[in-house]
Amino acid sequence: MTTLIVEPLNSRGIAVSTKEILASKEDFLAWGIIKRDLLFYAYLNRPACLITVAPQTWSLGRELTDAPAVFINGKPYLLDFIKSCSAKLLADIATSEDFERGLLWLVSLNIEDKERVYSLVRTIEASGLNIPSISEETVFCVADGKILWWLNPQRPTHEIIPTLTTSASSVGWSIDSTALESSKDS
């Protein structure tokens, strides 16, 4: 049985990953369902900005807008401001190649906050493989989609764990949130 691991990201959020290597098509589909469920829980019917790093012609963000890419520190980014994230959009994000590769970030900012978006992009990019020091709620994948980071969640941990437990159970997986629960005690 595959185990979903939920761990703290310092005091800034949670990391969701698997204990085992995803070797089968069924495991990849199950991981996609879990990511989708987490995105539903975090962003369904909420405004957000989708940030696509180095957008390609096939990037999901291109389907949402005709806007040209903006350049931040010489690198192209596509900014899609969404008034209310639909279930279909969130499902598409969860299974998109850009999201899987860590090139699509979901951030709780709206169109009036463009300067904050630019600042957030610079901070995330400058952090490299470290946890970025940002205050905005942000979800993205790292390690080629093997780990999902949810920074600054607007939901308390004690509400997130049951949602992830239900999602993991729905695909026949178990969940280990011991490290997260231990971090609350310290």
Structure commentary:
This protein has helices spanning 25-43, 60-64, 87-95, 97-100, 114-127, 157-170, 178-185, and strands spanning 3-8, 13-18, 48-53, 70-72, 75-82, 104-107, 138-142, 147-151, 174-176. It has 186 residues and is α+β, with helices and mostly antiparallel strands. The protein has one domain. It has a 9-stranded mixed beta sheet. Strand 1 (3-8) and strand 2 (13-18) form a beta hairpin. It is globular, with a radius of gyration of 16 Å.
Strand ordering within the main sheet: 4-5-3-6-7-8-2-1-9
Number of DSSP strand runs: 9
Which outline best applies? globular
Low-confidence stretches: none
In N-to-C order, the SSE pattern is: EEHEHEEHHEHEEHEH
* Main sheet: strands, sense, barrel: 9 strands, mixed
| Count of domain modules | 1
Rg, Cα atoms, Å: 16 Å
Summarize the structure.
This protein has 186 residues and is of the alpha+beta class. The protein has helices at 25-43, 60-64, 87-95, 97-100, 114-127, 157-170, 178-185, and strands at residues 3-8, 13-18, 48-53, 70-72, 75-82, 104-107, 138-142, 147-151, 174-176.
Throw out a few tags for this protein.
186 residues, 9 strands, 7 helices, nine-stranded mixed β-sheet, alpha+beta
How do the strands and helices of this protein lay out in sequence?
Layout lengths: L2 E6 L4 E6 L6 H19 L4 E6 L6 H5 L5 E3 L2 E8 L4 H9 L1 H4 L3 E4 L6 H14 L10 E5 L4 E5 L5 H14 L3 E3 L1 H8 L1
Parallel strand pairs: 1-9
Antiparallel strand pairs: 1-2, 2-8, 3-5, 3-6, 4-5, 6-7, 7-8
Helix pairs in contact: 1-3, 1-6
